[in-house]
Design goal:
Length: 308
Amino acid sequence: MDKKSVLFLFTCMGVIFCFGSVPVFLKYLSQYLDAYTLNSTRYLIGAGIWFPFIFILKDKIPPGSNPWKDALLPFVVNILGQTAWGLCPFYNDASIIGFGMRSTFFFTLITGLALIPSERILVKQKFFWIGSVISIVGVVLLSSSKSFQANEITKSINLFGIFLILSAALFYGMYSVLVHRNMNKYPARLSFAIISLYTSVGLLIEAILFGDFKTLMNLNGDTWILLILSALIGISIAHVLLYRVIQKIGALTINGIMMLVPLVTFVLAYIFLGERLIALQWFGGGLLIIGAFGLIYAKKCSVEEEVN
C-alpha cells in the first residue's frame, strides 16, 4: 500500500472516530447547557480555528469562481441540519443518535443520484444495491430502542427524538452532496472555513433568540475543556477530514463508510455514559458493517469500469 493510500485510510478512520465521538460529547454537555447555546458555542470555536484560511488560501480560488456564492446552498441545509442535530441529545441517548443518523445515507443517495451525474454509475453495480439493502435493514434493527417499551410519555418524547434525528439526517444527506457539487474545486479548509463562518452567524442568532449564554459562566474548568474538545474534534477536524474524503470518493460512498460510526459511538457511550444496546441492535450493527463494505466494493468496481 502506497503512502497516499495509507494517508487516505487514516483520514477515513479519523472521520469515523470524530463523528462517532460527537453524540457522546453532546449528551454529556446537554446536562449543563441548552441546545442553542451549546450548538452556537461549539460552532464558534470550531469555525474560529479555520477562519484564517479564508485569507491564507484565497490564492487557491480558481479564476472566475466565487466560493462565497457557491457556499450559500450548502450553508442553508447545514444550518437546518445543525439545528436539528443540536436538539437530538436532549431527546435521545447517544447510541441511538449515532445509529439513527446513519439514515443520512438514504437521503445522500437520493440527492446524489439527482444532482451528480458521476455518481449514477453506482446504480449499475449489484453490490451497491446489496450493500444498500443490508444497510437499511441494519438501521431499522438499530432503531429498535428499548425506550419504546416504556410508558406513553417516554414513548412520545422518543418519537420526537427520532423525528429530530431523521430531520438532521435529511439535511446532512443533502449537505454532503451539495458540498461535493458546489465546493469540490476549492481546498477543503477554505470550503469549510466559509461554510462554517456562515453557519456560525446563523447559530449565534438562534442562540441570542432562544438560548441563554449566561449558563456558560456556570461551567467548571473540566466541562469547558470537554466543550472545547467537542468543538475541535466534532467540527474543526471532523468536517475538514470529511471534505477531503468527499473530494476523493464522493458523497455516496463516504456515507457508506460512515455506517461504522455508530459502533464508535456505542463503545464510547458504553464507557463514559453507561449506555447499553439490546441483542437485536448488535445484530443491526453487524449488518451495517457488512453493508458498508458492500458499498465500498461497489465504488471500487465503478471506478474500474470508468477507467476501462
